[in-house]
Specification:
CATH superfamily of the largest domain: Glycogen Phosphorylase B
Distance between the termini: 13 Å
Largest sheet: 9 strands, mixed
Strand order of the largest sheet: 3-4-5-2-1-6-7-11-12
Radius of gyration: 23 Å
Helix content: 25-40%
Number of helices: 20
CATH topology of the largest domain: Rossmann fold
Number of strands: 18
């Protein structure tokens, strides 16, 4: 089986979020199971020079895009045993950041069409193109509209993965002819609620829709989570499934991670306690045995920050310390700065995102708090467990699929169901009760460190799904 994994970013070459982690890890896991998997991403101008030097030029061609014809270069590189292709066009991709431009509609139309056209010029004939989010949503659309008559494309299947349904690629109707070049009689594939919706087009035309957790696959069938696409998805529920993401166990390993104050493993848990003291010193917290809660997040409402804000005093009143790392809405940034001033030695607030500090927090705090309003998959709770921090999460999306309450069998964290601050406080209180029983707490931490969220099981699920798409099962 041959897969071409299409994404707008992938580690180690370029990254702005969780998609890059998936695109950098899943293809390796698929390849390790005796299947071919290659990756295609744009060649961004912000790629680091030492990575750019690994690239080899393959070819170039002119790509027809509606009324215009644009240069398209193809480069390749091999990293971790996986071959990566890079779509080059400096007009579209030599920018200061990856997204957020007025011509994003055109930039990723170019990228999607270039992926299909590239197959005429490279020595790889995939069985499936696995597309991710709205930036590659037009691959199945263009395949249906323009390429089904081509011998190289006729038998191609497409899978479309929704990482976050909130971002759909919605643009004005004018892009239909000016950018997409799609005939008016096929406009219905993309038209939705008076605009052009790239994600809607992929949902219509792909062979399989996946999301990044089983619970999220069910949630997006409801108006609360679907951002307007619930009716469309319910009609196509027959081709929808959820597969939870994994994490890269080698780059997230407290035994070897250079960010740790003291490296540790299941066999050397005493070293983890030294990390807590070192983090307290590093952040200006009092050296205390109080339960230390870590929060590493974007400071925005859908991450549940308003719940934390509402009962912050009560959380501190339980006898806790809190270490916060994140950035986002100014109202939340200002609030947490004020809490640091109100509770000196008990609260530390660092505004921004510092990868080294985030790892130090994972490997030092007792508890990791993640009360998201919605969370398609979430990786932070998995990383927290990998580093021995007990997660407290709300039961939504991938959080529900990965964290089971310690009040039941095989629990690895604490959960609450309703989006309610005092339900969250109850989960924190129950966690504190366990923390105050050192032997039981030690067992919980040991179990956390043994939880397996590698890509192994997820990759197997993807392979099964790809086989179903090809009619092998």
């Amino acid at each position: 089986m041959k897969i071409l994994y299409a994404a707008s970013e992938a580690r180690p070459f370029i990254a702005s979020g969780g998609l890059a982690d998936v695109a950098g890890s899943l293809p390796k896991a698929i390849r390790s199971r005796q299947h071919q998997c290659r990756v295609v991403i744009p060649l961004y101008g912000t790629m680091k020079q030492q990575l750019r030097e690994k690239l080899t030029f393959i070819t170039s061609f002119q790509l027809p895009l509606s009324w215009r014809s644009q240069y398209c270069g193809i480069f390749e590189a091999t990293e971790g045993g996986v071959k990566y292709y890079f779509i080059d066009n400096e007009f579209y991709f030599k920018r200061d950041t990856l997204y957020g431009y007025g011509d994003d509609a055109e930039r990723f139309v170019f990228f999607s069409k270039a992926i299909l056209e590239m197959l005429n010029y490279i020595d790889y004939e995939p069985d499936i193109i696995s597309c991710n989010d709205w930036q590659t949503a037009l691959v199945p659309v263009f395949l249906r509209c323009f390429y089904m008559g081509s011998e190289k494309h006729r038998h191609l299947k497409t899978v479309f993965t929704i990482h976050n349904i909130q971002y759909q690629g919605q643009f004005g109707m004018d892009v239909l002819g000016y950018v997409l070049g799609i005939p008016s009689y096929q406009a219905g594939i993309l038209e939705y609620n008076g605009c052009i919706n790239y994600m809607k087009g992929a949902i219509e035309t792909c062979d399989m829709i996946t999301t990044v957790s089983p619970t999220y696959a069910q949630e997006i069938l409801t108006p609360w989570f679907a951002h307007g696409l619930d009716n469309l998805l319910r009609e196509r529920q027959y081709k929808l499934c959820g597969i939870i993401n994994g994490i890269d166990q080698s780059t997230n390993d407290p035994a070897t991670d250079p960010a740790m104050f003291h490296n540790f493993s299941l066999e050397t848990l005493e070293e983890r306690k030294k990390n807590k003291k070192a983090l307290q010193q590093h952040l200006g917290l009092a050296e205390s045995d109080d339960m230390l809660i870590g929060i590493v997040t974007r400071l925005v409402s859908h991450k549940g920050v308003d719940l934390i804000q509402y009962i912050f005093d009560e959380i501190i009143g339980l006898g806790t310390q809190i270490a916060i790392l994140g950035s986002g809405d100014s109202q939340y940034e200002d609030f947490f700065r004020a809490m640091q001033e109100r509770y000196p030695g008990r609260v530390s607030t660092t505004i921004g995102f510092i990868p080294d500090l985030s790892k130090k927090i994972y490997g030092s705090v007792d508890v990791f708090l993640m009360p998201s309003k919605s969370e398609p998959c979430g990786l932070a709770q998995m990383i927290a467990l990998r580093y021995g921090a007990i997660p407290i999460v709300r039961e939504t999306g991938g959080l529900k699929d990965s964290i089971k309450d310690l009040g039941g069998k095989d629990g690895n964290g604490f959960t609450f169901q309703s989006y309610n601050a005092h339900d969250m406080l109850d989960a924190i209180s129950r966690c504190k009760q366990l923390y105050d029983q050192p032997e039981k707490w030690s067992e919980a931490v040991k179990h956390a460190l043994q939880c397996d969220f590698s890509w192994d099981s997820s990759a197997e699920e993807y392979i099964k799904m790809y086989h179903r798409v090809l009619g092998d099962q």
